[in-house]
Amino acid sequence: MKKVTWTDGSGKNHISLIRDADNETVATTGHGLSLDPPDVWNIDWNAVKLDLHNELVNRGLLTHADVVKQQSGVSGAVLSALRRRILTLYLGD
């Protein structure tokens, strides 16, 4: 078996598993075994936006000067808003 990385018409990257003897078009036509990560389109993005807003407020990241002062503050807020939801996708909950 071999892994094939391919891009669909919308620009989304995929990885599929196909037999060694198969042509890569087997994967691109959806006949291979998908190895894609969970679909992030299933995340409640409105809830993420709300959590991100609240994280920015809680961390005191209200102005550009605040962000410059707390170098990793924005990254931490984004991770906090997203991490749990992404891990939940992997768990299938």
Features:
single chain, 93 residues, alpha+beta, 3-stranded antiparallel β-sheet, 46% helix, 15% strand
Number of helices: 4
Distance between the termini: 30 Å
Average pLDDT score: 94
Helix content bin: 40-55%
Total strands = 3
Radius of gyration: 19 Å
General shape = elongated
The proportion of strand residues reads 15-25%
Give the count of structural domains. 2
SSE string, helices as H and strands as E: EEHEHHH
- Tell me the strand order in the biggest sheet: 1-2-3
Q: Which residue ranges are poorly predicted, with pLDDT under 50 across at least 5 consecutive positions? A: none
Protein model, in words:
The structure is a single chain. With 93 residues, the protein is an alpha+beta fold. It has 2 domains: 2-34, no CATH class; 40-91, no CATH class. The protein is 46% helix and 15% strand. A 3-stranded antiparallel β-sheet has the order 1-2-3. β1 and β2 form a beta hairpin. α2 (45-58) packs antiparallel against α4. The two termini are 30 Å apart.
Concise summary:
The chain is of the alpha+beta class and 93 residues long.
Can you lay out the helices and strands and say which pair or pack?
Layout: E1 2-7, E2 13-18, H1 25-28, E3 33-34, H2 45-58, H3 64-69, H4 73-91
Helix pairs in contact: 2-4
